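Homework help board

Subject: predicted structure for assignment chain

Our instructor gave us this sequence and asked us to write out the predicted structure in token form, then describe one feature. I got the tokens but I'm not sure how to describe them. Can anyone check?
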Amino acid sequence: MKKRILISTILATVLFASTTLYAKSTKDEVNVAQSSQLSIDKESKKQKEAFKQAPKEIVEGFNQTLKAIEALENSKNDTAKKALKKATENFNTALKNAPELDLVPLSQEIVVHEFLGNSSSVKKSLTLAKNLLEDYDTQTARVVLMPLEDEMIVTTDSIPMKLYPLATKDALKALEKGDKERALELLTVSLNTIASETVLMPLPLLVAEDLVVGASVLDKENKKDALALLTLAQDELKKAVYLGYTKKHSKAYKALEEEIESVKEEIKGKNIVEKFYDKVKNSFHGLVSKIRGDVVHEKAQEEVRTYENKEAHKAINVASKFTTDAKVDEAKTVK
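My token output:
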């Protein structure tokens, strides 16, 4: 019991220290908070604008298959038949209008986990967690580590139009033959072919970029504020390293760190900084664009897509096997 009280006290001390680090400089806290919100808003807008909603026939067709599954689970076979017929009609219309349709986005979800603190507070939490783990106090270490997320997660679910409608038709045929279990199996397995793509955007990198942009538009005479924003940008870069979003020795990170330092030196000296700012902004643009492009695909769904290009009709029967194999491969990769 004494040990638990001691750990709680240490944890409280670290958390208190984290909240007071910015309190020493309210202006810094405001700048980071404003940049963080601005970055979240801008990135959310970009992601929403990039998302292209599926044609209404596809959305309706997909919803009808969900209704069919629910009906079958409640032994309402006639209701399921009607839903599957409507789904097939909708899918046929969509494919007639655009035969080339393949993977079509159905929905998009944006989740933000914001960490309110600087690099120093992250490092203190990591040190505490390390000490706790060395003492095998894993559960308390988990509590310390759980808040260490500063990211936007964008997940897009897409329907494979060269596969999903086939499953719907096969399910309808099975149901018309009185094989309810087979129809339900086909529809349930077909849901595993919905492709889920996830993009993780580290907020510290977006905030650092915004802080640099903010510094670049300040009046040349306002050197003190420009330097302050650049220092905060450097701290956000460091925070990205401590949170595991980038590596300290990576070329991209080292280049940005050196470029920001060069801008600071120029501000202190000749103050001919336009070309230096442009270089930093271009480096950020390249790094962030790469992150936006690093889409993480669910392995099972990717295997299904590869397979269905060869034998689309058979793929639905082996999708469950792909899912199992993918989990095994994922476990090996983690190890």
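Reply (TA_rk): Your tokens look well-formed. For the description, you could write something like this. The chain has a mean pLDDT of 80. That's the kind of observation they're looking for.
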